[in-house]
């Protein structure tokens, strides 16, 4: 295919709440642009984008997909992102590498919480924004009401430029407010509108909205503002110029009406992307890390090659494909590159432009373009490939902390390695989940953004790597500590077994430390009552007990132990004897010092529509949560709270039930604090029962 330079490339992502029609829109975009000859459908499993078995089964996008088409002598790269909240990590990754986000809004349901959440992602990376109001054919569609809601959430930058003709079953076309042209469509046709006269009953509405558009555009440029005041209007060319400048600067968010399902208005979206959205050439610099230093370097086709891997996918009979955005230079087949993230060498082999499951071979990918690299040795998501002359690392995509966790173990003995290998491969494709063994609770924990994501991961583990797991609720990572001091606590260890014996006598003081201060051992032995070489053995024995716990089997924290006195035998005192004495005297002193349990507390931010705030705060209080505050974000409220982790292990399910699926939250570890005494008794008793059962 033709090679496009950065000035003729548009990189966009489709982004929104789940179920608004992003994949359907992408199918119709490719069909309208004649990039595909057959229109795929999500509902019947014929989509070339939602082509994974789990996506066909669930009828939802689970993993980001790349597509491209050609329109008016430009190449448009499009990244289709999942809308379900469990998979929003891919939306962050897509926004990392595009210049424009096309945000889909449902013409009937309006702005949903997922769209508000991804809007905050867009704000953080400062991409240009275009809105596509989808589903104008729906029975309850109301473009005017939806537009008002958008202005309420996203401000006065929202500016309609393509409006619908009719609504619901009467929706038949669109009007371009800039050119004052109307287009009628054949439902489920080829996507190209037929020019018609503007319906007489809409003339007043068109004039009113066009006047408002001119006012928005005039504010983007001082010259345009002066022309508008002098002439009372702007020319079509001036409006287009102002729109383009406004989209680039983020001061104008154009709104386009249409219907992806029936291929109405899709050609208008394509034209506006080409005419108004910034090209890849607009990104003149990129932020990189060179060593520990952050710097700005030019994005130049003639500069040294730098490409960022923002997604890794795996195809059964092909292997891994790394999807890259080339920020500088050119990638060419056969070129030796350096993985700057890992410090290893890579040779570029087969390269493709991707359209869902379809691939187009290429021998080079130029600065500004997006493509796929096949079977690199050791390169995965978030890695940077460089020409050998530079050592730039593109900062990795920042993902939110996982929200839901399950403890997993192999159903069949001996499959533990298969689990680790399988999850490591899946993590290369989806970096938003974590998997690790927690020694303090003796469980392997899989953590992800939600229950659906965990289900998908374990299904893939079973289907692709032929290993099944048992899953259960993870234990809470409690801690043990003390609340008062004990002085001159003594323990004597004596053992005679026919040969050389063991002898050690030690005296310690124990006292609590401030929270998070950790463990401290102080040697205050005076004289030679214990040899210098044997004193660290006491510390070693204590450390063994720190890891094992004493009252409930959890790690011990925030204690200070002072070795103050002791006694030794010239023959029977040795390292093991003082280790045992240290362990036992610490246990004795710990039990004398009013031990308590500590529980992890997490910081939570819960984003919900305002109508649900009372229910959420009441629910938080019932979970022993402490409300920190409430702040408006758009039409939603963000509630902050500190809550014991044990109370929110399954919170995603509860939040969905409380908010009809419209709530979202993040959480991260905050600190440890004391477990209430009644709850602590239950935890300690349960530990005793488990120890007895094991015995």
Explain briefly what this protein structure is.
The protein has 5 domains: 6-281, P-loop containing nucleotide triphosphate hydrolases (Rossmann fold, 3-Layer(aba) Sandwich), CATH 3.40.50; 285-386, Translation factors (Elongation Factor Tu (Ef-tu), domain 3, Beta Barrel); 404-475, Elongation Factor G (Translational Gtpase), domain 3 (Alpha-Beta Plaits, 2-Layer Sandwich), CATH 3.30.70.870; 480-593, Ribosomal Protein S5, domain 2, CATH 3.30.230; 598-678, 2-Layer Sandwich (Alpha-Beta Plaits). The mean pLDDT is 93. The protein is an alpha+beta fold and 695 residues long.
Structural description of this entry:
By secondary structure, the chain is an alpha+beta fold. It has five domains: 6-281, P-loop containing nucleotide triphosphate hydrolases (Rossmann fold); 285-386, Translation factors (Elongation Factor Tu (Ef-tu), domain 3); 404-475, Alpha-Beta Plaits, CATH 3.30.70.870; 480-593, Ribosomal Protein S5, domain 2 (2-Layer Sandwich), CATH 3.30.230; 598-678, Alpha-Beta Plaits (2-Layer Sandwich), CATH 3.30.70. Helix content is 28%, strand content 33%. It is built from 16 helices and 35 strands. The protein has a ten-stranded mixed β-sheet, sandwiched between helices. Helix 6 (203-218) packs across helix 8 and helix 10 crosses helix 11. It is elongated. The mean pLDDT is 93.
């Amino acid at each position: 295919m033709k090679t496009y330079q950065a000035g003729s490339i548009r990189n966009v992502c489709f982004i929104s709440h789940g179920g608004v029609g992003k994949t359907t829109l992408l199918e119709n975009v490719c069909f309208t642009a004649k990039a595909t000859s057959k229109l795929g459908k999500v509902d019947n499993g014929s989509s070339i984008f939602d082509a994974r078995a789990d996506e066909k089964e669930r009828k939802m996008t689970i993993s980001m997909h790349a597509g491209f088409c050609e329109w008016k002598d430009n190449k448009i790269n499009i990244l289709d992102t999942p809308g379900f909240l469990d998979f929003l990590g891919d939306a962050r990754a897509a926004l990392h590498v595009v210049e424009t986000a096309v945000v889909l809004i449902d013409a009937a349901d309006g702005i949903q919480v997922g769209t508000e959440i991804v809007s905050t992602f867009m704000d953080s990376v400062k991409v240009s924004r275009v809105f596509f109001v989808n589903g104008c054919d729906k029975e309850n569609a109301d473009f005017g009401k939806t537009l008002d809601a958008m202005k309420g959430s996203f401000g006065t930058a929202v500016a309609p430029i393509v409006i619908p003709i009719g609504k619901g079953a009467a929706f038949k076309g669109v009007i371009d407010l800039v050119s004052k042209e109307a287009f009628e469509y054949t439902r489920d046709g080829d996507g190209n509108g037929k020019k018609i006269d503007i319906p007489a009953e809409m003339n007043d509405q068109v004039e009113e909205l066009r006047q408002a558009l001119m006012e928005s555009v005039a504010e983007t440029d001082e010259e345009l503002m002066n022309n508008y005041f002098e002439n009372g209007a702007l020319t079509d060319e001036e409006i287009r110029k102002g729109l383009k400048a406004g989209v680039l600067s983020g001061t104008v968010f154009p709104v386009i009406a249409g219907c992806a399902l029936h291929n109405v208005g899709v050609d208008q979206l394509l034209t506006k992307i080409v005419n108004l959205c910034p090209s890849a050439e607009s990104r003149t610099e990129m932020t990189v890390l060179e060593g520990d230093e952050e710097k700005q370097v030019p994005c130049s086709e003639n500069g040294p090659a730098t490409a960022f891997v923002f997604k890794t996918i795996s195809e059964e009979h092909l292997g891994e494909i790394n999807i890259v955005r080339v920020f500088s230079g050119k990638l060419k087949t056969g070129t030796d590159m350096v993985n700057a993230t890992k410090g290893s060498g890579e040779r570029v082999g087969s390269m493709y432009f991707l359209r869902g499951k379809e691939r187009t071979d290429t021998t080079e990918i130029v600065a500004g373009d997006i493509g796929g690299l096949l079977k690199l040795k050791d390169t995965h998501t978030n890695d940077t490939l460089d020409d050998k002359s530079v050592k730039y690392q593109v900062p990795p995509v920042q993902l939110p902390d996982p929200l839901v966790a399950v403890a997993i173990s192999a159903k069949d003995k001996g499959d533990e390695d298969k689990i680790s290998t399988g999850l490591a491969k899946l993590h290369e494709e989806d970096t938003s989940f974590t998997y690790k063994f927690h020694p303090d609770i003796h469980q392997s924990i899989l953590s992800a953004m939600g229950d659906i994501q965990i289900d998908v991961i374990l299904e893939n583990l079973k289907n692709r790597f032929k290993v099944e797991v048992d899953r259960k609720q993870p234990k809470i990572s409690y801690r043990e500590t003390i609340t008062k001091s004990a002085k001159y606590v003594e323990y004597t260890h004596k053992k005679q077994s026919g040969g050389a014996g063991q002898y050690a006598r030690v005296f310690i003081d124990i006292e609590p430390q401030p929270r998070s201060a950790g463990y401290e051992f102080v040697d205050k032995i005076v004289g030679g009552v214990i040899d210098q070489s044997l004193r660290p053995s006491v510390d070693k024995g204590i450390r063994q007990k720190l890891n094992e716990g004493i009252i409930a089997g959890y790690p011990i924290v925030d204690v200070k132990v002072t070795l103050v006195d002791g006694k030794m035998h010239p023959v029977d005192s040795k390292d093991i004897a003082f280790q045992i004495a240290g362990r036992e005297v610490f246990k004795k002193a710990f039990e004398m010092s009013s031990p308590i349990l500590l529980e992890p507390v997490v910081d939570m931010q819960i984003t919900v529509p305002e109508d649900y705030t009372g229910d959420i705060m009441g629910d938080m209080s019932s979970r022993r949560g402490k409300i920190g505050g409430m702040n408006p974000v758009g039409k939603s409220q963000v509630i902050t709270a500190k809550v014991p982790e044990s109370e929110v292990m399954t919170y995603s399910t509860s939040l969905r039930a409380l908010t009809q699926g419209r709530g979202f939250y993040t959480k991260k570890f905050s600190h440890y604090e004391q477990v209430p005494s009644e709850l602590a008794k239950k935890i300690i008793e349960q530990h005793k029962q488990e120890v007895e059962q094991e015995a």
